[in-house]
Amino acid sequence: EIKIETEALLAQGHKRILLLTGESEETPLDYVIEAIHTIYSVRAGKSYIRRINVEIAPLEVEEFTRLKAAKIGTYTCFQETYDPVLYKKYHPSGKKSNYEWRLFVMDRAMAGGIDDVGIGALFGLADYRFEVLALIEHAKHLDEVFGCGPHTISIPRIEPANGAPLSTKPPHPVSDDNFKKLVAIIRLAVPYTGIILSTRESEELRNELFNYGVSQISAGSRTNPGAYSTDAHKDSGAQFSLGDHRSLDEVISCLIDQEYIPSFCTGCYRKGRVGNDFMDLAKPGLIKQFCMPNAIFTFYEYLFDYASPQTREKGLKLAEKLVNQVENENLKSKMKEIISKLTRGERDLYF
Asked: DSSP 3-state helix, strand, coil percentages of the chain (rounded to 5)?
């Protein structure tokens, strides 16, 4: 089943995925690692998944070392709420009821060798202002202790979900205006991090939030098992309801219209620019010397191999325009060299 889902994602043009499980003893670490190996093994022509980010329940240090050996990208875990009193109220039993166990998961992950971690809060459980301050403090703590802040910060808002009455009426709802504000504050406070926005939000709001600091979005996401390869149970068992139902191609087309570069890049992960090494480049803004060219290379790959005719036509025009705007002539020459190779059918080329 995992192989079939991976093939369906590859057919759309995806190169990076998030592997997510619930807090369940039915999905132990051995199962997750086997799933990772399965996903990495799938080939569809020249295409394969190049980076698997993992969002699973908190682990022990030794288990994180095993997860690292499986060659994951970023390990992600949301605190849900940073308010300890409300956390206990929302999680009254089971292993997840231990606030401190979850709070210090990233310390254990980094101690276990995980290079890149992603944090987040589920907005709507507590006062959004408290959650934002806590996220910033969490980032500061990781930076001070490990010399490496969060690779990503996620900002999901509660959406209706089966079996979760609270989700239909969040106790601390966040308005669209306050949501825009909190994105901008996180961007200013943690400029080096990737801010991730999910398909929970509407197409209109997602488009607008790029202006406030969002840098990464999901596209064509499904939140129920088996939904990529079949529509037979497209609404059955969904983790939460979606606000943006567009396909990957439709999202790419919209990004092109706004002159953003849709990037499928996984270069840093495979070049070893991770953890502290990544932060040394990201904090002063030097990472863009790799990000921009690699983004364009992966953009070309998508346009050549997966884009609809309309998306391909306007995408190629944007890509050519962006390459011609590169001021460094040496870099521009090297980029055109690689683009020429991509045009001839070579793939997975990056700086």
From this structure: 50, 10, 40
